[in-house]
Amino acid sequence: xxxxxxxxxxxxxxxxxxxxxxxxxxxxxxxxxxxxxxxxxxxxxxxxxxxxxxxxxxxxxxxxxxxxxxxxxxxxxxxxxxxxxxxxxxxxxxxxxxxxxxxxxxxxxxxxxxxxxxxxxxxxxxxxxxxxxxxxxxxxxxxxxxxxxxxxxxxxxxxxxxxxxxxxxxxxxxxxxxxxxxxxxxxxxxxxxxxxxxxxxxxxxxxxxxxxxxxxxxxxxxxxxxxxxxxxxxxx
Length: 236
What we know:
The chain is α/β, with parallel strands linked by helices. The chain is about 20% helix and about 25% strand.
């Protein structure tokens, strides 16, 4: 749908703007002082009514296995935080794999804390029964990570933003370009976040992991506080 630009004229003497095509300025009365303002220099309103916005209403769907979060759009943001050993990485593996299996975008789990060859890392993959659709990448520092996402439009799951020292402004610089963005933040034993608290409040969904249970704290797609048991195998 194209919007029609109303022609406007500027008085070269008093700078008065008018939409009337006359031979003199209606404010200072100087003849032949009006100059047509090019359409490219005019600011046009793109405001819409509620009816116009809802005409193409966005549709959300539950993510299989993670229905407790609610109806999710194709692209959303989430933060996962909790104390060391609570189960953050396990939860991130599982939800990343679920996204990889339904999304048309490539999905990457990016780790800065563990090498892909580490036994502990591989044990987590084995426990979570990760599919072949989820890709893994290891980065050593912030520079490598920002280079990795520089021209990416993939879904990105990061473990962890605390370790990489990513700021909110740096996150915003690539947020709109990538697909779904999920990142882990660490919490000290005193309950303080490692890094800016803005990183906790910025995403649409906030998950707190404690004692193997993931719980929603802030959730723009669901109602109420619900939880997800991360460790479901009998041996755990």
